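re: that complex we talked abt at group meeting.

here r the seqs, copy pasted straight from the sheet so there may be weird spacing, ignore it
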Amino acid sequence: MTNALEIEGLTKTYGDGFKALKGIDLNVREGDFFALLGPNGAGKSTTLGVVCSLVNKTAGRVRVFGHDIDTDLVKAKLNLGVVPQEFNFNQFEKVFDIVVTQAGYYGIPLAKASVSAEKYLRQLGLWEKRDSPARMLSGGMKRRLMIARALVHEPKLLILDEPTAGVDIELRRSMWTFLEDINRQGTTIILTTHYLEEAEALCRNIAIIDRGQIVKHTSKRDLLQQLSVETFVLDTEKDLPEAPTLEGVQCRLNGDGALEVEVEKGQGLNAVFAQLDALGIKVVSMRTKANRLEELFLRLVEENAA
Amino acid sequence: MTFNALWVAFSTIVIREVRRFTRIWPQTLLPPVVTMTLYFIIFGNLIGSRIGEMGGLTYMQFIVPGLIMMSVITNSYSNVVSSFFSMKFQRSIEELLVSPVPNWVILAGWVVGGMARGLSIGVIVTIVSLVFTHLTIHNLPMIVVTVVLTSALFSVGGFINAMLATKFDDISIVPTFVLTPLTYLGGVFYSIDLLPDFWQGVSMANPILYMVNGFRYGILGVSDVNPFVSLGMILAFIIVLSAVALRLLKRGKGIRH
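got the structure back, here u go
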């Protein structure tokens, strides 16, 4: 299987001397659903900006489906669809015009572009708004408009930079479903996100970038297997004056008075519940403190900072 | 991209530009008509009748070609500079940057968009001028070639201005402090024969003088300079400025980080 994206030794130094990327190597396989994660200012958007020709690289090579952006830029771009972090369409243009105009930039004639625009505007629930100026759309609709615009030329690789930022949970879930559908149909997807549950729910492979360097590049499964401790939050029937002492696990009370228990991988929760039961503490509900990826992400970033 | 795909991309940019300036016609098409009508009334009729003849023509007849050319120049320039800078400002220029449209097609699309507005205004102002005076056609090809090339030249100029501009102030500096003085001193309202020798020499360094006179020659058969020298100069400027614009696009000046 070919790679949808290959990045070798990518560096970017801005005019003020700031080194945003310090030699990035990254491969994304065709058909993958890939997450590029990292804290603010880590280099995620710069990396994707270089791939999309919005940022001039300082050094390194980038290939999109084998097409080098230095020598074969047109073919590289024909395979790419981009959903940026910020709204970047003309707010005064109509929804339908924005999508059809983008198709025109890819050389798609109006008749064919109109069919494709209708298809994606319908799928993304924007068809009824096709004659509205873009500024009249809600934030979630504007994000979906950018997805429709990015897909109108049927790219093989879709890049989404924070696609669900500021989107309510219901809409986010429907966008996840849409993205999973087009990924199943063969579109390779790369996304950056601050919602790590999004990456955990959607992506098969993950790279973590920090301070311009890739600190982890592996499958989500391998990554999660590295997580040795998981924290559970237990809501008890009665407020506890202090955290009980439990054998084999660390536990403490959090700010809400709930009990937080750290359990090592493979340890199981039966012993914890047995001890709590013996102490007369009744647990009424339980949840994980943070999603697993988030814990791992924080640890990797902290290690890199050390 | 194939020729057909390039043509679709080019026409997409042009159509978007035409759609833009026709959508906001009270800001783009109406003001020049009002301004030029005032010029015709005040300078042509009221003051012109006291000035008498210039170059063997009534003053109104003399200034009409210059005023048409002035409106073509300012509108071609301002269409491109405001449109392209707005796209930079709103970041919708990224729609083009991520697409496979070559730089020369981007430039050509904007230039033709600017020409569409500049020439539309030129036609409207010409029609308005017929209310006040009658125009002869001395050399139609010279009229068409001069006005089309001049419109193209100032569209390219507007494009460069927009590329280099970092704030809205920057897109009004050149029109206010360069374009307007050069246009007013470019023989729109007077023949340079009226000037002392020194200022005639200075005027010959003003490129707009050649364009106004080339156009005036096409309409009236009267010119302060050789009209074919005018065409040569306009062409040379177009080539040089287009090369500069393409260079800026390749570097991504102000549009790529």
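couple things i noticed - The mean pLDDT of chain A is 87. The interface with chain B takes residues 14, 46, 49, 52-56, 73-75, 77-78, 80, 82, 84, 86, 88-92, 97, 101-102, 104-110, 149 of chain A (CB under 8 Å).
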